[in-house]
Design brief:
Layout (H helix, E strand, L loop, with lengths): L7 E4 L18 H15 L3 E4 L10 H15 L6 E3 L35 E7 L5 E7 L12
Parallel strand pairs: 1-2, 2-3
Antiparallel strand pairs: 4-5
């Protein structure tokens, strides 16, 4: 690609679950679809890979749903590069964000939360040459201090 600075591999809304197909959602197919995408990403070598939320869906118990998350993460771990995650509403339907402790993630604050401009939240995302990502938060949005901004 002409003047390419960065390439990002993106997957979203996999909703993996061991449940029957509903409407257009083929929950059980998600693992194979993730596997295919990760294999392709490993050939194409994007700067990093990001999942944009809703990795899992509808476990009968929190333990079962956590097992779904581990199955999905086992596929993501096959990516030969940096991985980032956004946690979606379905990801925390049965368990808390703290249960993602083995998977590094960052939470963006919703603009709709809180009354008035003093509760606004927005961000800049800094993508560094090495593929690391840093979030600079404004208003009520927290800044990711785990990595320094690109130098």
């Amino acid at each position: 690609m002409k003047n390419e600075i960065i390439t990002i591999g993106v997957i979203t809304d996999t909703h993996y679950s061991n449940i029957e197909t509903a409407w257009s959602r083929y929950y059980r197919d998600s693992i194979l679809k993730i596997r295919e995408a990760i294999k392709a990403f490993n050939v194409m070598m994007p700067s990093f890979f990001i999942h944009l939320g809703d990795s899992v869906d509808n476990g009968k118990t929190p333990e079962i749903e956590l097992g779904y998350l581990k199955a999905v993460e086992a596929e993501y771990e096959k990516f030969n590069g940096i991985r980032h995650y956004v946690i979606g509403n379905h990801d925390v339907a049965s368990f808390s964000k703290e249960q993602f402790n083995s998977i590094p993630y960052f939470t963006f604050r919703a603009v709709v939360e809180g009354h008035g401009l003093e509760n606004n939240a927005y961000s800049l995302i800094h993508v560094c040459e090495d593929g690391s990502v840093n979030v600079e938060g404004f208003g009520k949005q927290k800044t990711d201090r785990s990595n320094p901004f690109c130098t």
